[in-house]
Amino acid sequence: MLSFNGMSALETVEFLTARLDKLGSPESYNHYAVGWAHAMDTPYQWTKQVASHWGGTRNGTIVHWPKGIQAKGQIRNQFHHVIDVAPTILECADLPEPYMVNSVGQVPMQGLSMAYTFDGAKAADRRETQYFEMFGNRGIYHKGWTAVTRHRTPWLMTEVAPPFDDDIWELYDTNEDWSQAHDLSKQMPDKLHDLQRLWLIEATRNGVLPLDDRAAERANSDLAGRPVLVRGTSQVLANGMGGLNENGLINVKNKSHSITAQVIVPNGKQANGVILSQGGIAGGWMFYVKDGTLTYLYNLVGIQHFVVSATEPLTPGTHQVRMEFAYDGGGLAKGGNASLFIDAKPVGQGRVEHTVPMVFSADETSDVGINGARR
Amino acid sequence: MTPDVPAEASAFNGTVNVVVIETSGENLDHLLSREEVLNMIVARQ
């Protein structure tokens, strides 16, 4: 999460060593280190974000359907893409492609069924062309040939990528060179140009253009510019709602915002528990009551916690509780002042010195009335 | 999120009837370069 928020410089040897015992525990994001990811992709080049090369991208597929496939324990080598899985299942189930789901017209599937390969070991490939693009890394497969270019290095989230025109393309004949080891671009420039042109045609057809080679910024919907699930400037959440991923909640990052709730504290009890939370250990915020004290907690990517507490208790009965966050402005990740109110009366104020600019968490959710564990 | 409120003991002991999130709705385009804004406009068409 540090890298996704442009803070990878914090992950020094000293920083990681101090947290060594937490690696592999629920308090860490258990990700393969780049070295291991790269090693496991051998003999292919690069890793999955580099969509141009096969490392992490080209993987074996196991198909198991004893009642439908006569061949047993055999290997197929026809080229296919993950978009071909759904059409394959539809063909096997003898179902038509849905053109309308819940009154929403569907974009036609572009995949091709792989069912012809089940009992056709030597059947000619039906998928002859497939483009690839991710973070500006791009490639094209056509009849066994690939033209590819790596635009940026995936683990350098904040590096300034070079101009697209400066990218260096490589050419491989994967009919003979399945691991993309021998670059033929210098020997066969015309073939490379043909495939580069084909990539452009496929990219245009499939909405890839204009290319967007930003990395961390694309995690924040405001900066990415993509459509969002929750539009507008307000959102109402009801009791019992939970398990909402980060894009299921209105975006509160890098801007002023408020959280207002109506709560009922039972008679004879001291209020305790979460009113609304977003994110978790990796980063996020929580509006809650601890031993009768209304509290706002801001977790800056697990490194620093800012806590603002009310000076008056939340008593039994029905109350409106509110947190107002006044963002400093002036760019991303700035701080702000958090103010607490009970029934419109100011009851506390505090400072959040820095905020999370891009993404709180990849798998910790938003929940009403609880801080849910990772799902 | 904090040891002060462990996830397994974080359920509110009363009732949360409704929660409203409101944002300022401020335009964040100033945080984007002109090229990025142009890309977003084209992508949305």
List keywords for this structure.
heterodimer; A: 375 residues; alpha+beta; 5-stranded antiparallel sheet; 4-stranded antiparallel sheet; 5 helices; elongated; B: 45 residues; 1 helix
* Total strands of chain B: 1
- Strand arrangement across the biggest beta sheet of chain A: 12-11-10-9-16
**Which strand-content bin applies to the residues of chain B?**
15-25%
Uncertain regions of chain A: pLDDT < 50 for 5+ in a row?
none
Q: SS-based structural class of chain B?
A: alpha+beta
Q: Number of helix segments of chain A? A: 5
Sheet with the most strands, sense and barrel status of chain B: none
**Structural class by SSE content of chain A:** alpha+beta
Q: Report on the biggest sheet of chain A.
A: 5 strands, antiparallel
What's the total count of β strands of chain A? 16
Provide the helix percentage of chain A.
10-25%
Radius of gyration of chain B, CA atoms, in whole angstroms: 20 Å
Order of helices and strands of chain B: EH
Describe the structure.
The complex is a heterodimer of chains A (375) and B (45). With 375 residues, chain A is α+β, with helices and mostly antiparallel strands. Helices cover 11% and strands 27% of the residues of chain A. The two termini of chain A are 17 Å apart. Chain B is of the alpha+beta class and 45 residues long. Chain B has 1 helix and 1 strand. The mean pLDDT of chain B is 78. Classes of the chains: A alpha+beta (375), B alpha+beta (45). At the A-B interface, helix 5, strand 7, strand 8, strand 9 and strand 10 of A face strand 1 and helix 1 of B. Strand 7 of chain A pairs antiparallel with strand 1 (15-23) of chain B.
